[in-house]
Amino acid sequence: MKTISTVVALLCLLPRLSCAGEHAAAAPLYRLRVSFDIPLAKIIGIAEMPVLAGRELSLKTGGLAISMVEVNGRAATFSTREGITSIQPPADGLLEIRYTGEFKGGGGFGSNSAGVSSVISSRGLSLTGLWYPQPSGLMVYHLEASLPRGYEAISEAEKITRIDKPSGRDYKFEFSHPLDGLSFVASDRYQVLEGKAGAVKLAAYFFREDRELAHSYLRAAQRYLGLYEKLLTKYPYYRFSIVENFLPTGYSMPTFTLLGRDVVRLPFIIDTSLGHEILHQWFGNSVFSDYEKGNWAEGLTTYLADHFYEEQKGRGWQYRKQQLIDYGAYVNGANEFALGEFRSRTDDRARAIGYGKAAMVFHMLRKKVGDEKFFAALKEFIDQRQFQRASWEDLKQVFEKATGRGLASFFEQWIDEKGLPEISVNNARVRRKGAKYEISCEISQSPASPVLDLSVSILSWKGLIRKEMVTLESEKKEIVFEVDEEPARLLVDEDYDVARKLTAGETPPVIAQLLGGEKVIIAVPEQGVDRFAALRESFLARGAIERDAAKLDYGEIKSSSLIILGSHNPLLRRLFAGFKAPPAGFSISVQKHPWNEKKVVAIIDAEGAEEVRAALPKIFHYGGYSSLSFAKGKNISKDTQSSARGIGVDIRGEPAALISSQITTLTDVIAAASAKKIVYVGEHHDNFSHHDVQLLIIKALHEKKRKVALGMEMFQRPFQGVLDDYLSGAIDERQFLEKTEYFQRWVFDYNLYKPILDYARAKKIPVIALNMRREITEKVSREGIDSLTETERQELPQEMDFSAGEYRDRLHLVFKEHKNAKDGNFDFFLQAQVLWDETMAESITAYLKKNPDRQMVVIAGNGHVAYKDGIPKRAYRRNGLSYTVILNDGELEPDSADYLIFPQPLDGLKAPLLMVDIRDEKGKVSIAGFTEESVAKKAGLQEGDVIVAVDGKHVRGLQDLKLALFFKQKGEIIKVSVIRSDVTIGTYEKEFEVKL
Question: Which of 307, 306, 256, 305 is nearest to 285 (CA)?
């Protein structure tokens, strides 16, 4: 649930905290008398305060016009420069300043820190900025104000006196405690409703049209005051007022809160922000932050208000997780600062630190010391520091006293050091230990912090086994647990009790990540960009940069969060092919960046410029959402993508099982699959039994009089013409294998596929070369898509989707198993695999579009069809045709396929081998070594021999050698000609007879 602090930019709801520091007796008295010319938006004022001779006094006066300065009735020298008035008191005594000012609003010299002006108008008076000569020190203020008849007014006061006169209405506001500033609010539209909360006098100043809301607010105020008096100490003042404002404010001052009209009408304010503002009466408005040493009050108030309310509903962990999501979105290495440096919320980054991180720190402190000592320490803190300034150091001391333990390292770690630690769990494993199970893992943090208290939950397949607390005192720690039940999973910090960086799996892609990102690129398409002009201008002002969407290279894409404008953007087709924008006037959808888990990609579409302008101001107030839709500026949908809870590590899966009574046969599978337009049959390439199953399926479908076509991964698209010639009988098998460069482009024995091709040729079944040219995928795997030439790019599929997370994760496991993984680039490996799958999906679609009466059987490796997110879903995205997936010896896991076939082992005829290790370089085939019992070695061939012919046919490469051997039989004798080098007689050619 979003608290008011989260949507504060929308409502300008920023608590304005007083900051008094000394006891009232130590603060001088500041008397202020003001009157108003409301039609002219003018204030006329007289300010009085004691001064000392020879001590220059500096007052903030902004655009106020100072007409007279006197000390003890005599004129005093003063000057005003850049909004500061300097006065040289000629003697000790009473300083009197006469001034005037105009407050028409619009962000002039009366603006406060939130950018909301002090305003005098027929709507009312809202003076919360610089509306009187303001000293830098703490003062005890007494205010007198003259207003027209019918005006109700409020200011910081415990005693309010109202005097009605024929000419108007006078007010006196007296407050015995020091303040660092004064506010004044008045309106002739107020209706005042009063109440009581114990000894506290309550009042609600609401506009007539909102009078009914006042009752609810007073009842809620009674509840909150009772809650915090029980939880903390007695309310520090005699009165508390809730004041509605015509400006969009949300401030808390001593004795009242000032909430904008739009704010009080929001249904959730009573249950969230009102309690927050009331709690500020204790923290910030009676115990004041020592701002020079950091503002602790916002974090503590957030923790005991916004967080506390969610915690009472059982949603504390969600609230804490959201604070960590916000921190990750808005705070980065370039802009973060230590919590002790926080003064006030100036932007979302400051809020994430000063409110969110601070609330987490108080939560960790509470977990560390326990509820009883936590609240006892806060009560002591209030008793000691009421009406004084207090710092983080003061908090530390009172908690040390209450707990009897040193907390210096805790406060140093979380207050003085910037950033959050990153937690990881590695090398998790389980083993049997007698009747028990022993679980071990390594928990690490970066950077290394002094101490972290982490919860570790151990779960079985049925649920929680037990939860342990682990104290991490250093960078790494090996932990070992023993449990009675078989464990399946570890879950670390699932309740978000520690301020830490979230893992990628825990972090949903949200709009906020665009606002706090270090680098954001707007990908601009060639056409249709004019409607996004306002949005582009807004994000450029926030530091984004623009790039031509068609020309973005791999480096820029990977290193940046991206804003993709328009549903026809070429970058969208390159990364998220098939994405459909929701039907709305304006939509934004934020996705995980497929090439960088720390970045996001926002896809923005709109019907026109008006829809963009209407929605744009609002999207920034929905930072916690992943997707939004608007119609004429009205939000019609919002959603946040799901994400993991806690740092989860799977250590042992539940055994998969089949119901034996439901085991069927290949015949039944074929019968069920025959109704599908596309039948994918996966394989392990070197397994004869898998290819036998494929042939049985093809035969069965053909015999059912289906018009079958066969799509094969093993052949590449440029050789489709050769395939057609072979199937038609125009060329023979040797020519077919030679011209398709089969032995060069596919490493597996052709005997594995020969029965399938023979059947297709005999039955005139079309065979479609599905795959991309090998040179392209190999180059991309080494150097990435950006390395391709313009000519090579013409061969790429028109659209690609990199967004499938589970597909990416499975490929990453495959990549790590490659022997050259350490030297490779996974992103390039992923690009090559996506190109591979997208190309085959495109080939399938193109053929079936031209031949809609055909049913296609697709033969490909299990990895390309398992879980359907390789070829099948990519083809379906293009054509929407029905399909089924059959895996041979596939993983026995849910959703891995529609059907799993476990054929009995089957041997097959294979081409004979020379049993040598070959080095094929620049068309020269040389022997690099021999396998055990090598027939070539027995015949006399040696390492270094260059094979130049087999049975008189030239060998110009490995393709020629394999082709020659394919047409031989085991036991047959062949003649192998080699060139051999000898140090004594030089280079010569020699021929050997080799029995295969």
Answer: 256
Residue 583 is given by DSSP the state S
Find residue 207's DSSP bridge partners: 190
Q: Per CATH, which fold does 660-901 belong to? A: Rossmann fold (3.40.50)
What is the C-alpha to C-alpha distance for residues 509 and 592, in angstroms, rounded to an integer?
Answer: 6
- Report d(CA 284, CA 288) in Å as an integer: 5
Pairwise CA distance, residues 649 & 494, whole Å: 12
Q: How many CB atoms lie within 10 A of CB 643?
A: 18
Asked if 715 and 760 touch (Cβ cutoff 8 Å), the reply is no
- Please write the tens of the pLDDT for every residue from 179-231: 888 999 999 999 999 999 999 999 999 999 999 999 999 999 999 999 999 99
Residue type for 429, please? R
Phi then psi for 726, rounded to 5 degrees? Answer: -65, -45
Report which residue type is found at 440.
S
DSSP bridge partners of 685 = none
Contact 58, 88 (CB under 8 A): no
Mean pLDDT across 728-735: 96
Which DSSP category does 773 fall into? P
Architecture of domain 518-639: 2-Layer Sandwich (3.30)
Residues with Cβ within 8 Å of residue 87, at least 6 apart in sequence: 51, 56, 57, 58, 59, 69, 76, 77, 78, 95
- Nearest 5 degrees, angle CA 624-CA 626-CA 631? 100
Measured from the Cβ of residue 409, the count of other Cβ atoms closer than 10 Å reads: 11
CA-derived radius of gyration, the chain: 39
DSSP string, 886-898: EEES---STTS-S
Instruction: List b or e across 696-718, with b for residues whose CB sees 16 or more CB atoms inside 10 angstroms.
Output: bbbbbbbeeebebbbbbbbbbbb
Q: Is the predicted pLDDT of residue 117 greater than 80, yes or no?
A: no
Report whether the peptide linkage leading into residue 594 is cis, meaning its omega lies within 30 degrees of zero. Answer: no
- 811-824: per-residue pLDDT in tens? 988 888 776 656 67
Backbone angles phi, psi at 314, to 5 degrees: 80, 15
Residues in a beta bridge with 708: 855
Q: Take residue 481 and report the two structure tokens written for it.
A: 């647990």
Percent of the chain topping pLDDT 70: 96
pLDDT at 309: 96
Do residues 606 and 531 touch, judged by C-beta distance below 8 A?
yes
Q: What is the pLDDT of residues 483-499, one digit of tens each?
A: 999 999 999 999 999 99
- The CATH superfamily assigned to 422-505 is C2 domain (2.60.40.150)
Spatial contact of 709 and 851, defined as CB atoms under 8 Å apart = yes
Backbone region of residue 496 per phi and psi (left: phi > 0; alpha: psi in -120 to 50; beta: other values): left
CATH architecture designation of domain 916-995: Roll (2.30)
**287-416: in CATH 1.10.390.10:** yes
H or E stretch including 679? strand 678-683
Beta strands in 898-996 (DSSP E): 899-901, 916-921, 924-930, 946-950, 953-954, 973-982, 986-995
Least confident of 72-76, 346-350, 816-820, 839-843: 816-820
Residue with tokens 């910030």: 284
Report whether 141 contacts 48 (CB < 8 A): no
Which residues sit opposite 147 in a β-bridge? 169
Torsions phi, psi for 566 (to 5 deg): 90, 145
Residue pair 130/61 in contact (Cβ under 8 Å)? The answer is: yes
Instruction: Give the position of tokens 């059982």.
Output: 314
Given CA atoms 714, 720, 723, 724 in this order, what sign does their dihedral have?
A: positive
Please identify which residue in the block is written with the tokens 């990199």.
802
Segment 237-276, tens digit of pLDDT: 999 999 999 998 889 999 999 999 999 998 889 998 999 9
Domain ranges of the chain: 21-41+103-247+255-261, 287-416, 422-505, 518-639, 660-901, 916-995
Q: Which single residue is written with the structure tokens 């705070």?
A: 331
CB 559 within 8 A of CB 535: no
